[in-house]
Amino acid sequence: MGTTYKRIKSVFTTFEILEYLSDCREPVTGSQIANDLDQPFQTVMCHLASHQDKGYVQTIGDKYKIGMKLAVFWARMKSAKESDLQGIQDDLQALNGK
What we know:
single chain, mainly alpha
């Protein structure tokens, strides 16, 4: 039987905020995020400050939007999948004798 690990609430909050921001077309205030996610304002602001320090969130005046650093994850995954695809295509060609 496998080990069951405890879930970390702040990790869920982090992703909830990032997912929220990724759905927003325009920058939003911290209070709007807190209200919409039913989270304490101070909690949201602490997360936003941390995300901003790491480049995952950007500020526009007193509003927040998703940062470009998250695009790096997508670009790496896309590159890995394209490499996987090329390897599969090469294997298929070899199997077909081409």
